[in-house]
Amino acid sequence: LPTQAGEHVSEQQEAKYSVEAASPTIVFHKQIQEAALSDDKTPVLVGQNFFRHDDRYLQVDGEKRDKYVTEEFLSGVVYGCQVVVTNPTSATQKLDVLVQIPEKAMPVLGSKRTRSQSVELGPYATQKLEYYFYFPKTGDFAHYPVHIARDEAVAAWAEPFTFHVVERLSKIDKASWDYISQWA
Known about the structure:
By secondary structure, the chain is mainly beta. Helix content is 4%, strand content 46%. It contains 1 helix and 15 strands, in the order E-E-E-E-E-E-E-E-E-E-E-E-E-E-E-H. The strands form 5 sheets. Strands 3-7-11-9 form a 4-stranded antiparallel β-sheet, with no helix packed on it. It has a 4-stranded antiparallel β-sheet with strand order 10-8-13-14, with no helix packed on it. A 3-stranded mixed β-sheet has the order 6-15-12, with no helix packed on it. The protein is globular and about 65 Å long. The N and C termini lie far apart (64 Å).
């Protein structure tokens, strides 16, 4: 390939995209399309939970625990999603994990809008993935949940979720550091 690319000419009309290459070129194409459900009944466990990046944990009886957000989300605040995939069998499983940030959210901290990652889980193994996002405005926004594929067929998924994003929370967490540091 040349070190300097020529002036390529591209054109897009609805779903059709064409490129007239002015110099030697490598083209890579990747797309997401509907997948069939897997006929393989080997179980895979998957869960996803959301947390506030700056207030992720709480202390319960001296133990640190995850502090998940399930009801209201604040606009302009960074949140994360923790995805946990578990192989509850004695056989190694090769899986593809598809994650996507919520509708109208913006990716942050190196996250992508959509990401697919291949994982190989040994017997009785678990793997955790995380991604981060924030909502620039308020509203109710849909979220396409994590999906797990095996041999290009859907093997497992989490439940869909709708984010209720507000300017101010209707319930204040009086155990949060923000509250204690300002109002205690």
